[in-house]
Write a sequence for this structure.
């Protein structure tokens, strides 16, 4: 029979080991590099999440449907590098921001609903992170549109643990299946059922941790901004033939159609325009190499405030003294006006409107 003292020592040792294991587990969860960092929403620490990896604290098993990922938009030729690890804002209404396959949903919304509503604690945690009530989860998920990302995209992700949802910053790989709302913002990651929110901007350069994928570029990451108005549909890119699809908001692909008014650019065009590091507008056509500097106008060349003599044309100050009509041909307007309106008529006396004074010869006569 074990003595009370020995039993007490065994229990204390077991409790101590449990505390140490728990502390090690929490420390590992808070400083992961391959599985993620939970417990913080600070924008300076961002987890990279490949498209199929569930990541830390998944809410559910994956409901993403296997489908070919559409090609990502091409970066412009000769684009200058941007500040590293900077997310570029893109409107959720931008055509080509998302992709998919015609008549095929990127996520199984009904299965996702069963996963989340089947566990009351997870349902409550999910609803709290999504700013809804738990009873609203089925209708909320049904209102979202299943698509795939075409750009590496930063979001505020939420991991589940101990009955709560914990926020952390993450970059989701292009090709990741998500559910987006009527403003074009990703709200659920289908590989894990985690609720999503718009990202938190970093104050300075962010540190990206985790597994990097082929094509990952920390200078070309999107941050989806809500569209100003609610969208009735999304214009996405067909993964099969790189063509345009118009998908009705909240529809799983059954009403997909070709847009009646397609976007004025190709699906492969870059969406992060203006290109990072390049001016937002082309140089002004007036910007030309410097030439000779024109001389400043003189007093006589400067027009007066009432629309006087233009520069370069003779005025009263230019006429030689004693010959007031020598420059008349340079100012043709008064001559035809006086000749046509007031012809000389020597046989009739001058009327009150005649501008010829007595005793002054008519210079326009004959």
């Amino acid at each position: 029979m074990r003595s009370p003292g020995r039993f007490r020592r065994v229990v204390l040792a077991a409790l101590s080991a449990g505390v140490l294991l728990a502390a090690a587990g929490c420390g590992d969860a808070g400083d992961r590099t391959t599985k993620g960092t939970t417990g913080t929403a600070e924008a300076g620490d961002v987890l990279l999440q490949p498209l199929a990896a569930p990541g830390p604290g998944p809410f559910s098993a994956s409901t993403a449907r296997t489908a070919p990922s559409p090609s990502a938009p091409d970066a412009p030729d000769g684009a200058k590098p941007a500040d590293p690890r900077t997310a570029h804002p893109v409107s959720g209404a931008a055509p080509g921001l998302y992709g998919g396959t015609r008549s095929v949903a990127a996520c199984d919304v009904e299965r996702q609903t069963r996963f989340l509503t089947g566990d009351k604690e997870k349902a409550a945690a999910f609803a709290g992170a999504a700013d809804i009530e738990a009873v609203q989860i089925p209708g909320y998920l049904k209102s979202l549109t299943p698509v795939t990302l075409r750009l590496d995209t930063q979001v505020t992700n939420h991991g589940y643990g101990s009955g709560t949802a914990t926020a952390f910053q993450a970059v989701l790989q292009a090709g990741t299946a998500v559910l987006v709302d009527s403003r074009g913002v990703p709200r659920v990651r289908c590989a894990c059922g985690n609720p999503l929110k718009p990202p938190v901007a970093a104050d300075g350069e962010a540190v990206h941790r985790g597994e990097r994928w082929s094509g990952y570029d920390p200078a070309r990451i999107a941050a989806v901004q809500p569209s100003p108005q609610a969208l009735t549909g999304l214009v996405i890119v067909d993964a099969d033939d790189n063509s345009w699809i118009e998908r009705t908001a909240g529809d799983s692909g059954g009403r997909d159609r070709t847009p009646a008014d397609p976007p004025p650019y190709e699906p492969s065009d870059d969406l992060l325009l203006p290109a990072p590091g390049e001016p937002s507008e082309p140089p002004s056509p007036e910007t030309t190499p410097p030439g000779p500097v024109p001389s400043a106008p003189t007093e006589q060349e400067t027009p007066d405030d009432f629309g006087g003599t233009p520069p370069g044309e003779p005025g009263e100050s230019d006429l030689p003294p004693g010959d007031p009509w020598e420059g008349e041909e340079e100012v043709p307007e008064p001559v035809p006006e006086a000749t046509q309106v007031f012809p000389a008529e020597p046989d009739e006396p001058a009327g009150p409107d005649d501008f010829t004074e007595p005793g002054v010869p008519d210079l326009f006569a004959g």
Remarks:
- The chain has a mean pLDDT of 74.
- The two ends are 150 Å apart (CA to CA).
- The longest helix spans residues 4-30.
- The longest strand covers residues 153-161.
